[in-house]
Amino acid sequence: MTMETPLAAYRNGGYEVEIRRDGTKVRREVEPGVPPVHPEQMDLKVTDWCDAGCAWCHEKSTRRGRHGDVDAMLALLSPLPAGVEIAIGGGDPLSHPEFDRLVTGLRDMGLIPNVTVNGRHLDRHRPQLERLISAGAVFGVGVSVFGRVPDWDYEHMVVHMIAGVDDPALLDDLPSRKVLVLGYKDHGRGIGFRGRHDERVTANIARWYRELLWLAREHHLSFDTLAISQLRPERLFRSPELYARRFMGAEGQFSMYVDGVMREYAVSSYSAERRPWTDIVSMFQAVRSGTPEQGAAPVPQAVPFGP
Amino acid sequence: MNIRTNVRDGVFETNSSSSHSVTVVPEEVLDFSIPKEDLRNGVLVVRPRGHGLEWYRYHSPQGKLAYLLSQLAPDYLDACPRGEDCAAILRRTHPKAEMAIGAVERVTGCRVEVRPHSRDAQHYLGIYVDPDSRGVGLEMLKDEETLLGFLFSPRSFVETGDQDTGPGDTIPTDLGEVPYLKGAYATARIQGDPLTLVVAPDGALTVTGDGDTVEIPGESYGFVRLRERLADLVVESVEVTHGDAGTPMAEETAVQSFHDFLAEATSYDSPKIPLAEDLVMTGRHGELDPWTDPSPVTLTLSCVVRPGKVPGIMAAAEAIATPARRPA
Questions:
Q1: Which residues does chain B have with pLDDT short of 50?
Q2: Which of A:99-118 have CB within 8 Å of B?
Q3: Closest by Cα among B232, B214, B208, B225 to B309
Q4: Number of C-beta neighbours around residue A127 at 10 A
Q5: pTM for the whole thing?
Q6: Which pLDDT belongs to residue B240?
Q7: Contact B113/B43 with Cβ under 8 angstroms?
Q8: Which chain B residues are within 8 Å of A210, Cβ to Cβ?
Q9: Element at A143 (helix H, strand E)
Q10: What are phi and psi of A287, to 5 degrees?
Q11: DSSP string over A244-266
């Protein structure tokens, strides 16, 4: 059997990391106790502009939003070694007039650019995305569901759905999809939306909690940290050991958030505490020092029990 | 030294608000074979019934829980008003029932209702448990981990019988009526990868999967030896061919041939074979008269294997086949 050449492999402190061509990431702790030097992945907000107007948007993006400076973002990220993943978001990131220059610049540095678009914008941006994918400048594409699951057969597309907002029945009778389940963010416009529709949001989260049982057998699911605390996917696993192998670490242990518009950084996009950016390694160490150690799972919330 | 390894499976990091913190791979999760509609409604109805006087199988999590509850509190359940939810009182009066129902509710997020079978139901026997059978299986209520592993495993089921009669050709289950086969049990279909097993009249086994084929000679008892590795598959269809196979075979003849084969193969102490609950049985025969010469049939088992498990089965088949290929 021949092993496929990985897309990237690097050493990061006490860890060896390999990114495979299907997106699989394997992290091995080869020197226990030696922390990572830089993030393995970064959420990079490149614009505040968006015309989707989602009532729960935690970024509060609007049509008046500004774009980030591409040269400044490329300069900030230039010390990162090849193989680090950059998850580009917004706002509507593909509306950034220099999006192509940003992703080709990141790729020239050996970084792995991925992007999230709103399903409402997919038709608008699909030709540009397909061109950049063909050119090897974009890899994973997350598509936030907006009323329907996108009909796009790109192998590295991940459907993003928010517990508390989206209807899991949208996945009924569909062939297996890669689905990232996001927890509900009580941040930005998410606070007001929850205030106005608390009962609806809570019932929807409870529904996701129950329906994970069939979704897990028919679709390929991932969860973010908030979704872990709200939906407790560890209950789905055959053993705690299997879950531990799949748990990639608490927010901020191997990841961080950078706001390229405001030139700030934080543990995640919904962190209340944000600081002005400096250099990437110092920023990551600051983020890491303020977060729990790897293996400390998010604190579970109460079981959202009930029909 | 154990190197701690973490794996994100099959996705790039696309999340621009936090990160992919856990990926779920279907073969690593428990088998929650609970209908989608029940999960959507948020209520799981458990219907205890009596046992010890008829043959019956429980495959579903609700069915297995119903069995355990009927073992735990048969007299109480028999006294419960038929059709009414008696979960609350059961939980208050039996700590093990509280543990079991609470664990299922926590894992599924659904409310559990316990409604004993109505007296009008077909086959209603009351919540009678034969004295010789009382308490059988209660070890599954030892703790939550044991209980959940039992309830949510596709490989566990409860079969109740009657000591005075044997099973018929079929057996009622909570998945519906299925053929009663000594060496097999019925289960829900799974998603996965195809694998074909062909058993020749001389017992030779041909295994085809993952673009590869392994042939095991008859004297190696390939099927019997490979069965330890077959828990991760479900047989979806069986074709029985006899002779030069020109004419469709009567279904009962095909079933009988398969039954005979399984009875022989299960004379060894090995796990039962999972068959799809809607198993398709077909057969064809040629000039030979299957009634006068019933033994030389070829069985073709079309299976679905849990994702990622085919290479292990092929490797096991290869290991069985290889010694026989060595020169003396």
A1: 120-124, 268, 325-326, 328
A2: 112, 114-116
A3: B232
A4: 9
A5: 0.78
A6: 86
A7: yes
A8: 39-40, 42, 108-110
A9: strand A141-144
A10: -65, -45
A11: HHH---STTTSEEEEETTTTEEE
